[in-house]
Write a structure and sequence with these properties.
Elements lengths: L7 H15 L6 H25 L8 E9 L4 E7 L5 H16 L8 H20 L3 H10 L1 H11 L5 H34 L11 H5 L5 H18 L8 H8 L2 H9 L2 H13 L1 H6 L1 H20 L4 H22 L2 H32 L15 H15 L5 H16 L1 H26 L16 H19 L2 H20 L8 H4 L1
Helix pairs in contact: 1-2, 1-4, 2-3, 2-4, 3-4, 3-11, 3-16, 4-5, 4-6, 5-7, 6-7, 7-9, 7-10, 9-12, 10-15, 11-16, 14-15, 14-19, 15-16, 15-18, 15-19, 16-17, 16-18, 16-20, 16-21, 17-18, 17-19, 17-20, 18-19, 18-20
């Protein structure tokens, strides 16, 4: 049993920040690496304890912490996890450790800055996942911008890294404006519902706002504001431009973070849908269409890429479009598959970007015309890329299969056209990924290196083993992840369908 007084979520958030601040006192790069590794290992242990102690049968928030924060605005330091969110702190800890180990030899300059910013990004991201006060959520959301900006601008590898950093920051700052407006509208509506003037009647508490009714016009406004802010972060077309630029110019570890943990899609299922359920039902066709367009566009553009990092960036955009379409279907299979796929992103998409970083570090390029026959000097690296690539395509036996299968079933149930369009995007994405693998790893040997000469090193093999284990184990036993979200997804969908004017009896018609 985990002691109820143990502030586990605060420890998960605070530990990376404390380690990042300690980097100031560390004189040598070697010590900085060791400190970052120790903090990442401890973070993973704490996240494992969280996952182990979670009760999937209980639909309520668990590991709750609530303390006064800004009393004048009724804003609280309020944390908690449920079936929708519990897996994501663990995934963040796994990805954090993988990035730190994978960057061990690749990062040679500004080592303390790099590891400190990676740790800060990890702590802020866990805060996004666990915050149940919307003002606190917004604080953590905005706190993710500065580490990414500094990582891209000062630790990036491309000649346009400063441009990529500024582009990202401007996109994110623009996306934060509609989120803030949506949060303020919800708080003001709560005050109006209680009949208590602001600021005394304001509330940013997630549970309180769930129980506060929204009229039709206000619900639509809040939902569309949330969707705009989260679409920029996801990213959905046409707000996707920052991700390929950052993937090309920033460090590989940063690209793995941004592709692996899709905070925008998480925000849709965590806040946009449950806080404005009637509007989510009314506008699900619009959201599903945006997701399908993004999935098809990303897949088509990815197929045309000759650089692995850009290919992975557009492939990631395609996959997040499919996830958003699944969330918009608002039936059990699609939503559960979308959550599972969001979890997969942390391992599969993040792992593929780490592989791209390994190749960049060894050869100096990820352009296809510079590569060929990599499977001979790098057999383990080639095998890891192939396995993660199969998982990203949803091949049976990998963790991606159950996720994509559930999404496709849910989309086909919702509308045959949506399901067929999603299948088209999947096929095109497969063509791009397999085509690159064939030419880069199985083509003529252009490098002339001895077999195994530049293959995975001992630390990198630990990362590869952990990523491969996730893909295979959850590919064979997907219920290990799906069982965590069963109750939460059922509760979410019941809330959405009960928001219809006809009440619960209209659930079947809505589906």
């Amino acid at each position: 049993m985990i002691p109820e007084t143990l502030p586990l979520l605060s420890l998960l958030i605070g530990l990376p920040f404390a380690a990042a601040l300690a980097m100031v006192l560390v004189p040598k790069p070697e010590t900085a690496r060791s400190l970052a590794l120790a903090a990442a290992v401890l973070e993973l242990l704490l996240a494992t304890v969280l996952l182990w102690g979670f009760d999937p049968v209980d639909p309520r928030l668990q590991f709750v912490e609530r303390h006064a924060w800004i009393p004048s605005l009724n804003a609280y330091y309020h944390l908690g996890v449920d079936g929708v969110t519990v897996l994501f702190p663990f995934l963040g800890a796994v990805l954090n450790l993988a990035v730190i180990v994978a960057s061990w030899t690749a990062v040679q300059s500004r080592v303390r800055l790099y590891y400190g910013l990676i740790l800060m990004l990890g702590g802020a991201t866990v805060g996004v996942f666990c915050a149940t006060d919307l003002m606190l959520f917004f604080l953590f959301w905005e706190m993710t911008i500065a580490p990414v900006y500094l990582l891209a601008g000062f630790c990036g590898t491309g000649p346009q890294r400063r441009y990529a950093a500024v582009k990202y920051a401007l996109f994110m700052l623009a996306g934060g404006i509609p989120l803030l407006f949506a949060i303020l509208l919800l708080a003001l509506n709560h005050a109006r519902f209680l009949g208590v003037p602001a600021p005394a009647g304001l509330s940013f508490d997630y549970l309180a706002l769930l129980d506060t009714p929204l009229d039709g016009r206000l619900a639509t406004t809040v939902f569309l504001l949330f969707m705009l802010g989260f679409a920029i972060k996801a990213p959905l077309f046409p707000f996707h431009g920052w991700l390929p630029t950052l993937a090309m110019e920033g460090p590989a570890g940063l690209a793995a973070w941004l592709a692996g943990l899709k905070l925008g899609a998480f925000g849709i299922v965590r806040f946009a849908v449950p806080l404005s359920p009637q509007a989510a039902l009314e506008h699900r066709g619009l959201v599903a269409g945006a997701g399908i367009v993004t999935a098809a566009y990303g897949a088509l553009v990815a197929m045309r890429q000759t650089n692995l990092r850009r290919l992975l960036a557009f492939s990631s955009i395609s996959h997040v479009g499919l996830v958003v379409a699944g969330l918009a279907a608002l039936n059990f299979q699609a939503v559960q598959g979308a959550l599972f796929q969001l979890a997969n992103f942390g391992i599969v998409a993040g792992g593929l970007f780490l592989v791209a970083g390994f190749i960049q570090h060894r050869i100096g390029s990820t352009e296809i015309d510079r590569l060929g026959g990599l499977a001979r000097p790098m057999p383990l690296l080639g095998a890891l890329f192939f396995l993660l690539g199969l998982a990203s395509l949803g091949v049976p036996g990998t963790s991606g299969f159950a996720a994509e299968h559930l999404i496709l079933i849910g989309l086909l149930r919702q509308h045959m056209g949506l399901g067929l369009a999603a299948l088209f995007a999947d096929v095109v994405a497969a063509a791009g990924m397999l085509g690159y693998f064939r030419r880069a790893f199985l083509g003529p040997d252009k490098l002339g290196m001895a077999a195994g000469e530049w293959d995975l090193r001992s630390r990198e093999r630990l990362v590869a083993g952990a990523l491969a284990a996730w893909v295979v184990i959850l590919g064979l036993f997907p219920r290990l992840a799906l069982d965590l979200s069963d109750g939460a997804v059922s509760t979410l969908l019941a809330r959405v369908h009960e928001s219809l004017p006809e009440g619960p009896t209209s659930v079947a018609a809505a589906e």
